[in-house]
Amino acid sequence: MIERSKQGAIDVVQASDPINIDYAEMFRNVFSIYAEAGQPHVVLDLQAIPLIDSAGLELLLDIQEKYRHRGGTLKLAAANPLCRDILHVTGMDKLFEIYDDSVTAVGSFVR
Amino acid sequence: MDSPSSHIGLPQRITGYFLLFGIAATLWLGLGVYYASCRISRERSESACLRILGHVIRSLNLDYMQHGDAHLQSLVENQCRDYNLAYLAVIGLDGKYLAHSASHRVGTKATEPAGATESWGDVQRVRFVNEDSAILQEYRAPLRAADQNFGTVRLAIIEPNSWHAFWTATHYAPIALIGPFAFLMIGAVVLGKLTRPVEDIDRQLRRVATAPSVAGCELLETEVHGPAAIGWNRLVHSWSKGSGQKDLQERLSESLSSMRVKKLEMVLDGLSDGISTTDQDGSILLANSALAALIPTLGQLANEGNRAEPSTMRKQNGPNGSSKSHRILDALKRGWVVPDSCPLVDPETTERPVVVELEGHFGEDRRILRVTRSPWIEPEHQHSTGHLWTFRDITQQKLAEEMRNQFVNTATHELRTPLANIKAYAETLVLADVPDIEQQKDFLNTISAEATRLARFVDDLLSVSRMEVGSLSLSKQTTNLARLLDEAVKKVRPLMKERKTSFDVFIPEKMPELYLDKDKITTTLVNLLGNAIKYTPQGGHVALRVKVLKEQLEISVEDTGIGISQDEIKHVFDKFFRSKDSRVQEETGSGLGLPLAYEVVRLHGGTITVESVLDKGSTFTVILPLVTA
């Protein structure tokens, strides 16, 4: 299940499903909504997301590129140890801003 | 330097050379045939003569044996005629002609012609030239009858000459010469057809060879006859596209300039701020892709004018220069509120930088855009020739700023009011003479209540601060839910009595034990119940309903209070948010209770929702998962 909320002008996406090949399309549809109008400023709260596989990583990169093209950005927050390791090993932590929690991630947009 | 043949095209030259060498070869072949014919003709005449000589000898010998020399003359004449000889003669042992094809020579002394003599046994051949300048070959052989020599036979033929040989060869010429000539002609035709496409290319290359500079040459595509023509056309196409026609410096400069433009485009499109340049009329000359995201109407305008997307909007003067231009203000006005007093529309401000903040509503979202416009002065012009625009979405910054201001206001109010009360009552106690013990107690109770209020506000602030940094943590324990609810209800009962609000509690008889943070959930419920009482007028009604579902616990707090408007309902869980309703403003409140409740419930894996109708009442529903330790 994907839950969308707004903190100020920042969109926060929370989910409890893994970002893998089975759910990638569902996540893509949700993220694409933000790229349709205005500049997308989105935080993906990974707290309840158990796993990210290669399809998920590819999706995140695609979305990031799409958002950047519109002057927006996707930030990650509250990754569990496994997701954090996956992001680190694949070098994705160099491509994304990753915060300990979604509140800090949202706050970072003000800076 | 031109040679005479250089005016003739390559295909003609190839065909010409082919025919020249082909005819030379054929003529050489003809000469060979002629020579062979001569040789064959001569050898054939020699062998024929020897064969005729044999026949003649046998005839003469036989005739002489039967009739003596009586019939020799007639036999000689017949034989000479039959074998088509120059002459035929029989010479007796006395050296006189016994018979001769020329009958007047019979009885005359035989003459010895001067010429080359060859011998094969008894047979001799004398080759000589007669009085008619004809070359004669005279074959001689002895005649025998009954082993007695009775004379010599002389047989002469006219040697075939060159003309004769040629004449003979002409009988075979159709086969020997016409065939090769025919093949040569067919070859020439085929070669001509094959090399015709090259003619055009050859002519153009010849022009290039004689031109003073390659750059000035114009190359044209040729008619397609085969792969060579296709290749040539591709070369011409590539050449005409530019690279070939320009000199190195020109090409280098063009290449570097296009690289610079591409880099600049990449930089512009990589910026998160929208960037645009416009001319004096405000028509867009250049825009980056972020601008299209910030001003969605710009994309619509581009489509209306059959233009490209703004990301590719570079020097938008239109393909024929006649299409209508995109005025940036028109695009802005389609989504953002641009008041008439805005400096952007004031013609007096075009020569100086302008910074404005515009507000726009996109669906339910309110967004704020900071627009800066600076005059664009090109080095060769003294005055501005256009404007440079930058656009930045500052909604989040604005919201943070508003929240900060609200916090300062709330904090000031929430700190000063209790402090003022404490100070006033304490001063009264100290300075004034208050002999009544009951009154003193009342004052002290007020001071205590205000101090509690201060402490609660400071606690809330601390909690919010922890919430901001994500360190608001739970201390979960197995909790008796009935006791927890009872505790919460007890805490709000005094307020309930004070406000004269009726209060109903619907709690199932059997309640499970849950694993949760007892203090924080109690605070949350007290907060919700407190709000319900605070914002319900006297005589109103408040209800607490608890339902134990299959996997969830549902706690609802209902009231018949002032309610929340639909505009404000989505902000009730925002920090420091307080309704603009005057009935709310009358009550004290920090705007922190509901955000904290929201966060506490969220940390427990639950949800909190609100339904409300203005002036009718509100219902806050907390759903918590049934989790046991």
What is the name of the CATH superfamily of chain A? STAS domain
Distance between the termini of chain B: 106 Å
Per the CATH scheme, the topology name of the largest domain in chain B is Beta-Lactamase
Biggest interface, chains and residues, is: A-B, 24 and 28 residues
CATH architecture name of the largest domain in chain B: 2-Layer Sandwich
In short:
Chain A has helices at 24-34, 54-69, 81-89, 102-108; strands at 2-7, 10-15, 41-45, 73-77, 98-99.
Core attributes:
heterodimer, A: 111 residues, alpha/beta, Transcription Regulator spoIIAA, 5-stranded mixed sheet, 4 helices, B: 629 residues, alpha+beta, Beta-Lactamase, 5 domains, 6-stranded antiparallel sheet, 19 strands, rod-shaped
Tell me what the structure shows.
The complex is a heterodimer of chains A (111) and B (629). With 111 residues, chain A is an alpha/beta fold. Chain A has a single domain, classed as 2-Layer Sandwich (Transcription Regulator spoIIAA). Chain A is built from four helices and five strands. A five-stranded mixed β-sheet of chain A has the order 1-2-3-4-5. In chain A, a hairpin with a 2-residue loop joins β1 (2-7) and β2. The longest helix of chain A is centred in the middle third of the chain and has 16 residues, at 54-69. Chain A is globular. The termini of chain A are far apart. Chain B has 629 residues and is of the alpha+beta class. Chain B folds into five domains: 10-170, PAS domain (Beta-Lactamase, 2-Layer Sandwich), CATH 3.30.450; 173-240, no CATH class; 266-393, 2-Layer Sandwich (Beta-Lactamase); 400-465, Helix Hairpins (Orthogonal Bundle), CATH 1.10.287; 473-625, Heat Shock Protein 90 (2-Layer Sandwich). Chain B has helices at 10-67, 72-82, 162-170, 173-210, 227-240, 248-270, 289-294, 296-304, 328-333, 395-431, 437-468, 481-499, 518-534, 566-569, 582-585, 593-603, and strands spanning 87-91, 97-100, 115-120, 123-129, 135-145, 148-158, 274-279, 284-287, 336-337, 354-362, 365-376, 386-393, 477-480, 502-506, 513-516, 541-548, 552-559, 607-613, 617-625. In chain B, the strands form four sheets. A six-stranded antiparallel β-sheet of chain B has the order 2-1-6-5-4-3, with helices on one face. In chain B, a hairpin with a 5-residue loop joins β1 and β2. The longest helix of chain B is centred in the first third of the chain and has 58 residues, at 10-67. The radius of gyration of chain B is 66 Å and the shape is rod-shaped. Chain A binds chain B through residues 8-10, 37-41, 68-73, 78, 100-104, 106-107, 109-110, and chain B through 269-274, 289-290, 292-294, 296, 311, 362-363, 365, 367, 393, 395-397, 399-400, 403, 467-470.
